[in-house]
Amino acid sequence: MRWLQGVLRSLGLYAGEVHGEFDEATERAFLALIGMENLEERYQGGPEVDEATLSYLKRRYPWS
Q: Running DSSP on this structure, what letter comes out for residue 37?
């Protein structure tokens, strides 16, 4: 989750703290990201993301 928040922050989609919790602000930012990547049909809501989507995002947006 820290990876996701870090990526969202670096893209300017998330202004919150990188704390590793999937909160409402993280989900809103994540929805913006998957919308940009045209992956919204793969997301069912909540902290669960399918492996194919997660793998794609990790390759596209590496963050350390």
A: T
